[in-house]
Amino acid sequence: MDFLRPTSLADALSAKADQPEAVPIAGGTDVMVELNFDHRRPSALLDLTRVPELATWEPTADGGTRLGAGVPYTRIITELGARLPGLAMAARTVGSPQIRNRGTVGGNLGAASPAGDTHPVLLAVDAAVELRSVRGTRVVPVREFYTGVKRSVLASDELITAVLLPRAGGPQQFSKVGTRNAMVIAVCSFGLALHPGDGTVGTGIGSAGPTPLRATEAEWFLTGELADGDLWESPKPLTDSVRRRFGELVAEAAAPIDDVRGSAAYRRHALSVLARRTLGWAWQDYRTGGDQRCA
Amino acid sequence: MTQYEGITRRGMLGLVGAAAATVPLDSGAAGAQAASGEVTVRMTVNGSATSLTVDPRVTLLDALRERLQLTGTKKGCDRGQCGACTVHVDGRRVVSCLTLLATLDGASVTTIEGLADGDRLHPLQQAFIEHDGFQCGFCTPGQIMSAAAVIAEGGARTDAEIREQMSGNICRCSAYPGILAAIRQARTEMR
Ligand SMILES: Cc1cc2nc3c(=O)[nH]c(=O)nc-3n(C[C@H](O)[C@H](O)[C@H](O)COP(=O)(O)OP(=O)(O)OC[C@H]3O[C@@H](n4cnc5c(N)ncnc54)[C@H](O)[C@@H]3O)c2cc1C
Ligand code: FES
Ligand code: FES
User: 2Fe-2S ferredoxin-type domain: which residues (chain B) (predicted)?
Assistant: First the structure.
């Protein structure tokens, strides 16, 4: 087995072009489990931990954030809680402190598990994924990134270099259902972002379909309700029926299966509850002007 | 394996695994003819400079236990879930079962064996004894290494914070009340 240790992005990209079958390893928290249990026997590993370009984040010209694919969750929590409130909330729920010291958003996207905790937030905030190869750079909206269970548009000679997240113009929320507090794969999860700037809302559903999903109908419904009641301008508490209907539409958008972690029916029910609650919290934040509520 | 045009491959990528070092990877699996290239890793372990040449798939945990005979670090699950294998890499706690040794060239590793100051126990080790922070002791090295990092990071201000920060270390004997008390005591002594 080859072990490739590039020390710059350019070298990493040429290595990947040269050996497209090489498996990138960032935090290793997914790859290593597969290696230790012999679920995967790659002919080469491509160590990304020495590529400095992947381990940084910076503000973008439009007030957003370009987050390097290799920035570990711990740094997202400590450095980006205010800039990326939804993503930081999701990061706080990943694994354990030890896993968060190593695990990365690039790895979450690379694994593309429908249960990955960053996906609902990335969908809700309408993030984009920056993919690079020696052929060039392309930016793919995260809504087009996932193509199936653990599959994405990532080509074999490409690396995920960064995630581009728009400025958080309003409250964001993430919530997940699991069997205990630490170290659980989500039974289902939900991300929500309110965008007062253009009067829209964004959603993301995790662990309830072959890929992470958007609840488009629920977004339209809520966008309409908020506009009709002129609620962005004069924010009143949302009625129970609006919150309930939003929850129902989110549950309808899911495509869950029965598995060891939960039944499809349970997942739908739990999603409607998560959606209703996160909407309640986010709207409360908007009304009271605190757009950086902590989980 | 193809050669990069016009650049020395080794210089550019630090690529290891040349055709010269061919050991059959897995004689059991039919048709698995991949050549295994070993990797040399230089690092500091508990303050001593160490150099190891290993198969690239070797974890830090296996290297510590089987190559360096540092068996204080325990293997509970080998999948990141129990925390028994927690050590410090460059001052941050990681689960050594999910850390490839090959990624650690130049790194500094501290294990439970490196915590005491000669014969004088580290305040956490002493506190675990005083507060019955263990029964069978299997999880203890991981608990202590994890706790040492939590205290150093200033993340042990309240009981709730200690519990949250220690959530990656599981104790099958459920010595949690003793562990919590021990960390509380050591926190004061370490400040
Ligand atoms: C005990 C435990 C608990 C966990 N809990 C959670 C949890 O609560 N929520 C959750 O979402 N996940 C969880 N995970 C899974 C894992 O930690 C996350 O998916 C994490 O984000 C993976 O990041 P990584 O950097 O460690 O990825 P790696 O293991 O390094 O890589 C994962 C995949 O992505 C590819 N890859 C990595 N970086 C790139 C890149 N830059 N370009 C292209 N491909 C790339 C790799 O080849 C691999 O296929 C858990 C894992 C463990 C072991
Ligand atoms: S052995 Fe590493 S976490 Fe269990
Ligand atoms: S003391 Fe036995 S597992 Fe913790």
Answer: 39-115
